[in-house]
Amino acid sequence: MGPPADPDGARALLRDAVGLGITHIDTSDAYGPRFTNRLIREALHPYAASLRIVTKVGANRDAQGGWPTARQPDQLRRQIDDNLESLGLDVLDVVNLRLGDAEGPREESLAEPFEALVELQGQGLIRHLGVSNATAAQVAQAQAIAPIVCVQNMYNLAHRHDDELIDRLADNGVAYVPFFPLGGFNPLQSEALRKVASRHNTTTIAIALAWLLQRSPNVLLIAGTSSAAHLRENIAGTRISLTDQDLADLAACT
């Protein structure tokens, strides 16, 4: 909630990320709220042709920092308009429909809100659609309504409940985007992780991200960072090739 402590540093970090080859930024107008999108616009607009900015709708922020759902068609239209305005865009690259709640996915129909986004896509405001915090059944329901390009769910070394879904999406050419790839509010920690990191003379963060990248070719990472040093630590994971022994050791992290 609210602006970052160092807005100039945040803008510099965004420019560093793009300069280092990052081409995918995950955001939402509810982050801040609005501050994050404004910082992205101030730092990067006009956007490079290679950059994909992916936002999400389906929830707002209340004064206490909570995430009340907002999935009625008129609410979704306002959120799309707000994202377009704050990012300085005429069309959004990808919009994820956020489902469930802060506790996780919930089995419920997504037909009405997803069809509302399909209608906005038909109006030229959205290029591609995805779902976030979704069950496998909801992913299938969305795909029966319209094509999706990504699924954004919680998944990491210690939480591998979506293994079957990841494989199915890979077969369909759909990206899987793990949020909390490093554990989120409960950072990943294990002796096995430290052992493999020591073997490669790197950090546990780099190993955890390398594992995700080797998990499946359709995995697209959104590791968050607030410092240039952390950014480079994250990127280091792309240069690591884990061995069969590494993977066997990391199996103990579940």
From TrEMBL:
Gene3D superfamilies reported in the protein's UniProt record: NADP-dependent oxidoreductase domain
EC supergroup of this enzyme: oxidoreductase
EC assignment: 1.-.-.-
GO molecular function: oxidoreductase activity
InterPro entries for this protein: AKR, AKR_Detox_Biosynth, NAD(P)_OxRdtase_dom_sf, NADP_OxRdtase_dom
Any Gene Ontology CC annotation: cytosol
Keyword tags: Oxidoreductase
Keyword Oxidoreductase: yes
Keyword set includes Oxidoreductase: yes
NADP-dependent oxidoreductase domain location: 6-253
Name of the protein in question: Putative oxidoreductase YdbC
